[in-house]
Amino acid sequence: MIDALNQLGELLLDGDAPHANGKLDVFDPTTGDLIAGVATSMVDDCLAAVETAEQAAGGWAAAPPRERAEILRRCYETMMAEQAQIAALLQLENGKPMAEALGEVAYAADFFRWFSEEAVRIAGEVRRAPMGDKRIIVLPEPVGVSLQITPWNFPAAMPVRKIAPALAAGCTTIVKPAPATPLTAYYIADLMERCGTPVGVVNLVLPEPPNEATVAMLAHRAVHKVSFTGSIAVGKHLLRLAADRVLRTSMELGGNAPFVVLADADVEVATEAAIAAKMRNTGATCVAPNRLYVHERVADDFTEALSARMAGLTVGYDRQPDAQVGALISTREREKVAGLVTSAVDRGAKVVTGGRAPDCGGYFYEPTVLADVEPDAPILAREIFGPVAPLVRFRDEARAIEMANDTDAGLIAYVMSGDMGHGLTVGEQLDAGMVAVNRGIISDASAPFGGVKESGIGREGGFEGIEEYLERKYVASNW
Ligand code: NAD
């Protein structure tokens, strides 16, 4: 078994031995095999984690920013030094191809690096009031203990994208990883401890099911903030809980990204962008193009080029080392994807390539292109979260923009155009927190990631990321 799994040592439970707290089984999605059992947390364990975070909060907030920065920097360097073994662990529990697992670890580590640089640049403000009667002093202060809940699709990047800014700002945290992929988060917590993070600053919990413990933790007076990445439905539930205590919230929720190929698009550029955006993590990303609107002038060429590229991708059956497409996270997810394809086909969509769930041990679905999808087909209305690209033809650009905006989500939109001015003009009209023009990958620790409408509240990364963990205290003074 891989080194990283051995390193988790005591955390993993033996075989069928029961555990007093209950046990969570973790599976390899590429084979369906059981890889590990992890003890789950009881409600009391979670409340104890809150208290530990509360006790550590004062010392951590008071620590010199440079000290916090240097710990985060060491986390970056150690994560990169251990990139291969973390990627192996991440791949084992998530099922993504090795190249992507390595990429995710580097992306995650970059949040440690970026926020180590931000930790020493938190600025306040001093000015004279317009009436000249006082000085206005604005002091940045850490929000305090934060609960951070993450999904399974990026088991390293999602926790680090939350932990790094929180620690840089001087907050302590309780982290709840997804039940399908908890091992990478445990590895990262251990790595952070090895890099000098004081005990109690980062506390991992794994309550399963999570609701009762979450309700209890959010009701605890020490908790001041909840940061969540996951589905819109769970995000709304957490917002309701947060409302009871008027907690600060950051919500990175689901998307329903339009990918608009304009009449003047370069088909090759658009195809490569579509492959990169759609197929990352086997389509299971919040930023995956969910609806591809293609102008009729380029529709045939784009459909052919995209289908040829999709059909040529190597799927990772039997743990193929050079795989380009991984497995979905569970049989349930695979059935959902298959059901959406069937419903689109029933309404007249044409399967150009793929369209099947292969008969093998893992939770795979073939890279699929659907042409002539009806604009009101159900597959366009909810996140597919799988390797399926539904194409809708359009003639009128204004109508394409209208269709693209006809959703409650607003995370990201893609625009393909041979004319940058044209692409940017259309991009401006799309309701999204992020727009990608002529490219498929936008994630970057130094850029503000987040959505509008039901896709969320707040931004992660960029200069904005640390603000999610800061309060601004106004001090009025006569100098
Ligand atoms: P999910 O909402 O089912 O679960 C996310 C996390 O919330 C998991 O850890 C889960 O255990 C936990 N959770 C679920 N119910 C809870 C409750 N009642 N109390 C406390 N915790 C609870 O989402 P998922 O299926 O794990 O992830 C996929 C979703 O995440 C998609 O909608 C995707 O778009 C979204 N996502 C968004 C971003 C972003 O940055 N906007 C990034 C990645 C994924």
Task: Give the SSE map.
Blueprint lengths: L2 H5 L15 E5 L6 E6 L3 H20 L2 H17 L1 H12 L3 H22 L5 E4 L6 E8 L2 E5 L7 H13 L3 E4 L6 H12 L7 E3 L6 H9 L3 E7 L2 H14 L2 E5 L4 E5 L5 H13 L9 E7 H16 L19 H16 L3 E4 L14 E4 L16 E7 L2 H9 L6 E5 L3 H9 L5 E4 L18 E2 L12 E8 L2
Parallel strand pairs: 5-6, 5-8, 6-7, 8-9, 10-11, 10-15, 11-14, 13-14, 15-16
Antiparallel strand pairs: 1-2, 3-4, 4-18, 9-17, 12-13
Helix pairs in contact: 2-8, 3-5, 3-6, 4-5, 5-6, 10-11
The structure holds nicotinamide-adenine-dinucleotide (NAD).
The site of nicotinamide-adenine-dinucleotide has 25 residues, from helix 8 and helix 9.
Q: Can you walk through the features of this model?
A:
The mean pLDDT is 96. Strands 12-13-14-11-10-15-16 form a 7-stranded mixed β-sheet, sandwiched between helices. It has a 6-stranded mixed β-sheet with strand order 7-6-5-8-9-17, with helices on both faces. 39% of the residues lie in helices and 19% in strands. Helix 14 links the parallel strand 15 and strand 16 (434-437). By secondary structure, the chain is an alpha/beta fold. The protein is built from 14 helices and 18 strands. The N and C termini lie far apart (64 Å). It has helices spanning 3-7, 43-62, 65-81, 83-94, 98-119, 157-169, 183-194, 211-219, 232-245, 267-279, 296-311, 331-346, 397-405, 420-428, and strands at 23-27, 34-39, 125-128, 135-142, 145-149, 173-176, 202-204, 223-229, 248-252, 257-261, 289-295, 350-353, 368-371, 388-394, 412-416, 434-437, 456-457, 470-477. Bound molecules: nicotinamide-adenine-dinucleotide.
